[in-house]
Amino acid sequence: MVFDVTEPNNGFGAVWPRIYINTMQATYPGESVTPVIILRHAGIPLGMNDALWAKYSLGEMFNIKEGDAPAKKNIYATITNLPLPGLGIAELLKSGTLVGLCDVALTVYSAGAAQKMSMAPDAVKKEWVAGLLPGIQVVPSGVFGVARTQELGCAYCFAG
Q: Which of 29, 76, 107, 153 is 20 to 30 A from 69 (CA-CA)?
């Protein structure tokens, strides 16, 4: 199944794939399952490390809050406040989940951040790519990633 994450949506894109894995393993013991997550549009910060969140105020940029304040770190990398283990993008990557991140959104949002901070867009984009969680692959576009996974047999789930 491909999980299409177009916005943070309270981290559901970092939770539902684990629920899918757990449910499939309980229903079909011994069969393998490999979810795919495509982070696109405003969903891309779910794939970024804490240093990028702090430097570029991604919580503020993407309206992601921790409590009442903009998040200063990636609160969706590892999620521990729910009673299921293995939640979060970083944890899902460890389990073999495939994660693609939209190059178009990366280009647009990093250019916006660069303009706001009077920095070179190419340098900011390069830093953002380097600051993705280990294992995330940049795909030409999120729309392409979602379409291609379905062409290869994945069912579709809108996750944000």
A: 107
